[in-house]
């Protein structure tokens, strides 16, 4: 195995992790501020991807598609928050799980009804297609590199938002004492809607960006959602920093596991069984990582409370 | 006799009478639907022990359902191809005998539940929900990549497994097996809820600190409940695989976990017969709405949303009043 292949896979893992971060950040924010577990976050990811594919198909512009994805997911998020989610904050987690599971059914089937069961395709924009040569002679997809850059920029922006702006101060205040900030005259239900829409927009952005390298189809959100849960469990619920670290850990473990485990088993097994054992184990590797983190730190790497 | 007991008896009777009527009217499809209700209700009874009694919101019970299914699939596929499962360190052969398959399914899902439970129960609340979901998904991906047993395509079993003295290919006889197992599980769940263990578990749900101060370990109580719960759901998985004569990774999928939970909620959380009412309602809806529209899950979603937001006790809670509702 060449070093170039390894470097390429590390970049792939990083890109995958960064996209997971966009999902996990919204989830962890919503949980941290409102104490809500939202299974329908994957549906917002899907809405972003479908909105982008539809707008790109109609206009041919990738930038407009991204804007549409952000707007559609944020609007869907705000709508759902006002209609349904708002009634769930005071309920127990079981009710939240069920109501958001119901939302998944409604979103998925409505999308299937609108767009049909066949996958849509979202093309990578012309200017970003093709490879670039990185230092060291590594050929790497420019689009994926852009995804890493966008993701890191969003992470940085989110960090500034939380630590430097008035909205960020309110979000942090809402996390630690919601009665107190309501008493100080902050419109808490408006704040909740904004946070939820912000999380939704991040998920929609991830959906649109990933949609260009996968196919856009119904049910694309849930596998990512579950991975985002693993990320949050590893990073610690409510912590944006934990979400970033967890996401990159999960992205790298998954990608490198798929590359290295079959090779590792190839050292003392014949080729066919090494490939099957290695890939079976690789598909479980991130969950094993999660189990290890749980044994060492039940509330996650950066989690304050269990 | 309280109103809930009355409703429960009516439900059990209806689940028995509908297939009997279908048998006399020669409607084997209805018998199969009733069998499906009995099996799914059994899976729900399993989850209800963890969820209703123990307050453990497990979103990963598809893991046990799938393990039960694959226990059946692996044993029966080796029996139908006359190959041994392993010949080292000792010879293990496949089997087509239901009682043996059930035993293997229950033991295998029990061991899995012990492992998953021991890790997941270190946490609680939202963490527990996410972790059980993640472990379920782990087994889903494992089943997909496990090429020896069909991978993504699953395994077909050509002839239903046998039960001594019965012809399991006859729908009404297979229904009888599932119905008896469901009743046995319900009886067990009822006895369990009123046993010292069940009372302690219930107390651990309401106030773990108080349980701890009288010298009981909430972790151990919950772990035992989780294992029992997984075993019953695993048994249901083996039966479900036998009903379809097919196992696939779908049995492990997170949708399956969600649906088992939906049975309980539609019926009524922590109600003994909640899963029976819920599974019956689910199958009836699937049958009626599925006939009306390809997109019947939209209606199911709306109904579920309304039940969660406005009718917390589910079917049984609405009919029997709020005396024993989940708190």
Task: Draw up the topology in text.
The complex is a heterodimer of chains A (306) and B (327).
Chain A: H1 3-34, H2 41-59, H3 62-83, H4 93-115, E1 131-134, E2 138-141, H5 142-164, H6 166-176, H7 178-183, H8 188-211, H9 221-235, H10 240-266, H11 271-296
Antiparallel strand pairs in A: 1-2
Helix pairs in contact in A: 1-5, 1-8, 1-9, 1-10, 2-3, 2-4, 2-8, 2-9, 3-8, 5-6, 9-10, 9-11, 10-11
Chain B: H1 3-24, H2 28-53, H3 62-81, E1 84-86, E2 92-93, H4 98-120, H5 125-145, E3 155-156, H6 171-194, H7 196-206, H8 208-213, H9 218-244, E4 246-247, H10 254-267, H11 274-292, H12 296-310, H13 314-320
Antiparallel strand pairs in B: 1-2, 3-4
Question: Your description of this structure?
Answer:
The complex is a heterodimer of chains A (306) and B (327). Chain A is mainly α. Chain A has one domain. Helix content of chain A is 75%, strand content 3%. Chain A has a two-stranded antiparallel sheet with strand order 1-2. In chain A, strand 1 and strand 2 (138-141) form a beta hairpin. In chain A, helix 1 (3-34) runs antiparallel to helix 10 and helix 3 runs antiparallel to helix 8. The longest helix of chain A is centred in the first third of the chain and has 32 residues, at 3-34. Chain B contains 13 helices and four strands. In chain B, helix 2 (28-53) packs parallel to helix 6 (171-194). Chain B is 72% helix and 3% strand. Chain B is mainly α and 327 residues long. Chain B has a single domain (3-320), classed as ABC transporter involved in vitamin B12 uptake, BtuC, CATH 1.10.3470. The chains are: A mainly alpha (306), B mainly alpha (327). Chain A binds chain B through residues 31, 37, 84, 87, 93-95, 97-99, 101-106, 108-110, 112-113, 222-223, 226, 229-230, 232-233, 237, 276, 279-280, 283-284, 287, 290-291, 294-295, 298-300, 306, and chain B through 51, 57, 59, 119-120, 122-127, 129-131, 133-135, 137-138, 141-142, 144-148, 254, 258, 261-262, 265, 269, 295-298, 300-302, 304-305, 308-309, 312, 326.
